[in-house]
Structures are given as structure tokens and as C-alpha cells.
Design a protein that fits this description.
The chain is α/β, with parallel strands linked by helices. The protein has 2 domains: 254 residues, TIM Barrel (Alpha-Beta Barrel), CATH 3.20.20.20; 100 residues, Sulfite Reductase Hemoprotein, domain 1. It contains 12 helices and 15 strands. The strands form 3 sheets. The protein has an 8-stranded parallel beta sheet with strand order 8-7-6-5-4-3-10-9. Strands 11-12-13-14-15 form a 5-stranded mixed beta sheet. Strands 1-2 form a two-stranded antiparallel sheet. Helix 1 packs across helix 2, helix 6 packs parallel to helix 7 and helix 7 packs parallel to helix 8. The longest helix has 20 residues. The protein is globular, with a radius of gyration of 20 Å. Bound molecules: iron/sulfur cluster.
Length: 382
């Protein structure tokens, strides 16, 4: 029997020929993990993701060199493109002619042009979007909430949601409604909570759902499924991305996973899911993207999972991140965190840095720290 899914009546947002919201079928998106400057590899991956059913594809841009590469990518493929701006928001004006949508992270706007307010920066992005007929996405992320919101709100969840609501207000005051919002975390429970609160406060705004750094298979899909099943079945969510840590040749599997989850929800096939983060080891790792600093990242994430299996019965989180852009922030809440540099891996215990180690040394160091942590917990419990 097919489950009937009531969808929230959100606004319709046009991204090129793709419609998001207002009851349109949930759009499956993806993101390239190749180096954007490697035009051939990026074009090949965009085509690979499109063939698997991605209707929108995101590419990260941090520099002028990458903008030039994207111009060449644009010449070689017609897939609908979304650009992901991290800290370098002024690049929006340069990439705008090449894409259909721009994602900005409110938590990264403060890095550049410190003399300008968030209002001025958002007004700039809106003027670019209007001039080039683009949609925007306000993409807030647990690991990079704007510092002023973290100061104002004691509860990080409240800071995350309030930051998204503030940007909706800024955009709407400028008369701009062609935008979606995403509220991401690596914990599916928090993704559910944040999106439920937001959808209650701003039911008309289309939501892009995702569990960030969901990690390796099969846990990455399970975590994502937990969040999507509970949100989409309640009518929340207009577009999705499944973020998995996969080698480039298998990147299309995250698109296939997205379609499979949607098909299962539509058919009423809900799975029972493990309770992550409460009574067992939880390894989170980012899906990797063009910013990944060393090709060994995916292999490292897999090795961490294998090496730490002996601690499976312990309620601990270990995070493995691919770069310095999100790695330092996204690992703060993990019991042990690793984030990759070009030749070293940085090891952390929550927000405390334990040093940087070579790719050949890091597993041994991680094991030492994990053993120390388990011993401390056992002493505390005895
Ligand atoms: S942590 Fe870095 S490499 Fe990994 S997905 Fe995020 S930006 Fe990309």
C-alpha cells in the first residue's frame, strides 16, 4: 500500500528549469568531490551524478582560479549548477553567469570585509541573484554558526535556527523570496529537531534536507534515512542531498541512495534504525568535496572505522573531516576528531588540539587516545 505523504505548502522556487517546493516532487541534489580546477574530472563527475538522477549539482568555489575552471566546466556540460560559496562570498558576482543557484553560509559571511554588516552582504547577494535570475540557499550548519548568534543564544540549536530565521528576514525585507533554507548537522536527531522547529516558524520556506558528514556506508545512509523518514513523512523537505564518504568513482551512489530513500518513504517502507550517539560508537566523516586536502582522506576514514571497531559498544563519537574549512569546527563536538591537512592529520579531543601527525602515524595516535578515553570512562564508572 502506498503511503500518503502530506507535503507542507511551501513557496515554489525556480532553479533553472527545476522547481523546488509547492508540492513539486522532492528534488535529489548532489555535489562534486573532484578538484574544481580539474575540469575533465569535474565534468565527468557532473555527468556521472546527472546520469544517476541528480537534478541539481553543486560545485564548491573558493578562488578566482576555480571560477575560471567553472567557466570551462559550464561550456562542457549543461547540467543545472549550484555554486557553494564558503568564505569568499564576493565571488558570487563572478560565478553568477555560470550557475542557477548560489548557496551561502551565514556563518561564513563574517570572514571577509569585516567592515560590512551581514545586511550589506546579503543585499549584495540578492542584487547578484536578481541580475542573473538565480535562486539562493541559506545553508546554516551546526559546525559554523555565525559567532554573534552563538554568543546571543546559549543553546546551539536555538542559535542555528535563529540564524536561519534572521537571514529569511533579511531576504524578505529586500523583497526576495526565491530562496530555500537548509539546517544541517551530523546528528540526525538534531537535523530532525532543527528542521521541525524551522518548519513550524516558517512553513512557507522550502527546505533542503541533509545530514552533513553522514559518513561511510552503510551508516551514512542509515543516519540520513533516520532524518529523512521522520521529516519527509511529516511533509517537511522539498529537496535533499545524501552526503556520503565515497571514492570519486562511486560518488553517484549518494544520488541513488537519495532516490531509494524517497521511493521507500513514498511506498511506506520505513526501516527500524539504530539509536546513534547514545549507546554505541558513532563514526562520522564528511562526504568529501573539492576542498579535501589529501586524496588519502576516504581511505583514512575507512581505516578509522576498522581500527576502532573494538570500541563499538562505547557511546563515543569520532569525527573524520577532509579539510581545514570545516574540519576544525565540525570536530569540536566529537569525543575525538581528525581533520586533514595536505601532509598531516590534526587530532583533537573535543575542542582541544592534540597535535598534527603524519598520515602513517595518525591511526596509532588515535588508538592511544581512544584507549586513554576508554580507561578514563571505566575509572569514572567504577
Ligand atoms: S569537511 Fe571539507 S572536504 Fe569535507 S565536505 Fe566539508 S568542506 Fe569538503
Amino acid at each position: 500500500m502506498k503511503a500518503r505523504i502530506e507535503r507542507n505548502l511551501t513557496r515554489s522556487v525556480g532553479v533553472g528549469d527545476v522547481r523546488i517546493g509547492a508540492g513539486a516532487p522532492v528534488v535529489v541534489q548532489s555535489m562534486t568531490a573532484t578538484r574544481t580546477v580539474d575540469v575533465d574530472a569535474t565534468v565527468a563527475q557532473l555527468e556521472q551524478l546527472a546520469a544517476a538522477g541528480a537534478r541539481l549539482e553543486r560545485v564548491a568555489i573558493d578562488s578566482r582560479k576555480e571560477v575560471e575552471a567553472l567557466a570551462e566546466v559550464r561550456r562542457q556540460t549543461s547540467v543545472p549548477l549550484v555554486v557553494d560559496l564558503q568564505e569568499n562570498y564576493p565571488l558570487a558576482a563572478e560565478v553568477a553567469p555560470l550557475v542557477d543557484k548560489v548557496r551561502y553560509n551565514p556563518g561564513h559571511l563574517h570572514h571577509l570585509e569585516k567592515g560590512k554588516t551581514a545586511e550589506q552582504k546579503v543585499a549584495f547577494l540578492v542584487s547578484v541573484a536578481r541580475e542573473h535570475d538565480l535562486a539562493l540557499r541559506v545553508g546554516v550548519n551546526c559546525g559554523s554558526v555565525a559567532p554573534d548568534f552563538l554568543e546571543r543564544y546559549e543553546d546551539p540549536m536555538e542559535a542555528l535556527v535563529e540564524s536561519a530565521l534572521f537571514h529569511c528576514k533579511l531576504l524578505e525585507e529586500l523583497g526576495f523570496e526565491r530562496f530555500c533554507v537548509s539546517l544541517k548537522d551530523s546528528d540526525p536527531g538534531k537535523v530532525i529537531e532543527a528542521n521541525r522547529i524551522f518548519a513550524e516558524r516558517k512553513p512557507e520556506v522550502p527546505l533542503h534536507l541533509g545530514v552533513t558528514e553522514a559518513g561511510l556506508l552503510p551508516d551514512g545512509v542509515i543516519k540520513t534515512r533516520i532524518a529523512f523518514e521522520q521529516l519527509i513523512s511529516q511533509g517537511i523537505g522539498d529537496t535533499i542531498r545524501v552526503s556520503l564518504t565515497l571514492p570519486n568513482a562511486r560518488k553517484h551512489e549518494e544520488v541513488e541512495a537519495g532516490h531509494q530513500i524517497l521511493a521507500d518513504i513514498a511506498a511506506g517502507r520505513f526501516r527500524s534504525v539504530p539509536d546513534f550517539g547514545t549507546d554505541r560508537l558513532n563514526i562520522i566523516s564528511c562526504p568529501s568535496c573539492s576542498r579535501v586536502e589529501n586524496e588519502r582522506f576516504v581511505e583514512l576514514a575507512e581505516e578509522v572505522k576498522t581500527m576502532t571497531a573494538y570500541a563499538e559498544q562505547h557511546a563515543l563519537t569520532i569525527a573524520v573531516m577532509g579539510c581545514r574549512v570545516n574540519g576544525p569546527g565540525e570536530t569540536d563536538d566529537a569525543d575525538l576528531g581528525l581533520w586533514c591537512g595536505p601532509s598531516h592529520v590534526n587530532l583533537k579531543r573535543r575542542s582541544e588540539s592534540l597535535g598534527a601527525f603524519g598520515y602513517d602515524e595518525i591511526l596509532g595516535k588515535l588508538r592511544e587516545e581512544l584507549d586513554r578515553l576508554l580507561e578514563e570512562r571505566s575509572l569514572a564508572g567504577s
